[in-house]
């Protein structure tokens, strides 16, 4: 190693697709930092994982694993909606983006968003959309998003 070369000492945080083994690496606990996420049994996790996996590139969940701790420290997902609008175009919907509170400020959220936007672009989407809190607006603007309308929601449970 050359003097001043710290590249081999710096952690390399790679974005990859969710794997079934990620449940044991704190994936569900990480989602709890975002919103309500009850405990998920191993069977329920495996069933949902297989269901999402069966959608192939139309629903992708990505993660970043801290290789030192073996924990999942960032995640996000994108699903592709097939439309009749825009010559039967496609829209990417980004959801469930969260970075562990102890790993914030390391640009991991930007890595997750870039991965998801690249995927949507490669899938032929004409746009990608997401909902976020006012507190996260500045972050998404730094990622190239702009506010467009307002979100409406009706919960059934």
Essential attributes:
27% helix; 5 helices; alpha+beta; disordered N terminus; five-stranded mixed beta sheet; 157 residues
Structure description:
The protein has 157 residues and is of the alpha+beta class. 27% of the residues lie in helices and 25% in strands. A five-stranded mixed sheet has the order 1-2-3-4-5. A hairpin with a 4-residue loop joins strand 2 (59-66) and strand 3 (71-82). The longest helix is centred in the C-terminal third of the chain and has 15 residues, at 108-122. The N and C termini lie far apart (57 Å).
Question: Secondary structure elements and their pairing?
Answer:
Blueprint: E1 15-17, H1 27-31, H2 42-53, E2 59-66, E3 71-82, H3 85-88, E4 90-99, H4 108-122, E5 125-130, H5 137-142
Parallel strand pairs: 4-5
Antiparallel strand pairs: 1-2, 2-3, 3-4
Helix content: 25-40%
Query: Which structural category do the helix and sheet elements fall into?
Result: alpha+beta
Radius of gyration: 17 Å
Q: Span between N and C termini?
A: 57 Å
Strand order of the largest sheet: 1-2-3-4-5
What's the gist of this structure?
With 157 residues, the chain is α+β, with helices and mostly antiparallel strands. It has helices spanning 27-31, 42-53, 85-88, 108-122, 137-142, and strands at residues 15-17, 59-66, 71-82, 90-99, 125-130. It is built from five helices and five strands, in the order βααββαβαβα.
């Amino acid at each position: 190693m050359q003097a001043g070369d710290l590249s081999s000492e710096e952690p390399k945080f790679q974005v990859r697709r969710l794997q079934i083994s990620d449940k044991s690496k704190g994936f569900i606990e990480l989602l709890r930092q975002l919103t309500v996420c009850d405990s998920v049994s191993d069977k329920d996790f495996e069933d949902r994982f297989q269901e999402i996996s069966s959608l192939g590139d139309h629903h992708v969940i990505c993660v970043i694993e801290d290789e030192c701790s073996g924990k999942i420290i960032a995640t996000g997902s994108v699903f592709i909606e097939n439309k009749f609008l825009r010559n039967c175009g496609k829209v990417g919907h980004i959801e469930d983006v969260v970075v562990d509170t102890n790993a914030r400020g390391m640009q991991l959220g930007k890595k997750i968003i870039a991965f998801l936007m690249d995927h949507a672009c490669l899938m032929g989407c004409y746009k990608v959309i997401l909902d976020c809190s006012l507190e996260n607006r500045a972050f998404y603007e730094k990622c190239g998003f702009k506010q467009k309308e307002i979100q409406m929601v009706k919960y059934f449970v």
